[in-house]
Amino acid sequence: MEKPDKKRIVIGISGASGAIYGIELLKALREANVETHLVVSKTAQITIAQETPYSLPQVQGFADHVHSAGDLAASISSGSFKTNGMIVAPCSVRSLGEIATGVTTTLLTRAADVTLKERRRLVLMVRETPLHAIHLRNMVTLADMGVIIAPPVPAFYSKPISLHDMIMHTVGRMLDLFDVEHNLIKRWPLE
User: Fold this and answer.
1) Does the global pTM surpass 0.85?
2) Distance in angstroms (rounded) separating the CA atoms of residues 182 and 73
3) Top CATH class, 8-176
4) In whole angstroms, how large is the CA radius of gyration of the chain?
5) How far apart are CA 169 and CA 153, in angstroms?
6) How confident is the model at residue 5 (pLDDT cuts 50, 70, 90)?
7) CB 1 within 8 A of CB 115
8) What is the residue extent of each domain of the chain?
9) Distance CA 95, CA 140 (A)
């Protein structure tokens, strides 16, 4: 399958806590000259306002293209629209469940479903704890289909000194999954 000349990644921000991951991903992808298509769930709009210093228009400004969560006719809802994949950061368990069952009610979950059906890379930064059996079954279902389940778990081997350091390490690991060059993390072995 022919890919666009420039990398193109869809970023979904769902309503789970941790919207800052999606925001920092958008900023890092812009720095790396990767075209981004953003879809923010209605609940994520609330989370962004509660958890971050950013307004929704500011977050949208970090993306190359913004799509309304209710626009099921957007380009990213079609398999004929070529992308390198999608990251849902953070991914709520509601979004996880919709993607796992193929019952999509918003553009965010429809775009993830399209990514899955087209066999493109799909990364879900599931943000929930503790997890019960249904959450775990949904993750296994998706992992069996090739989805990368990547909860934003902090790494301490790099000796982070701030929350920002921990966030950026996770963002760097997500960029690695798409072969996007960056210098956000300290590589193992540490010197």
Assistant:
1) yes
2) 33
3) alpha beta
4) 16
5) 10
6) confident
7) no
8) 8-176
9) 15
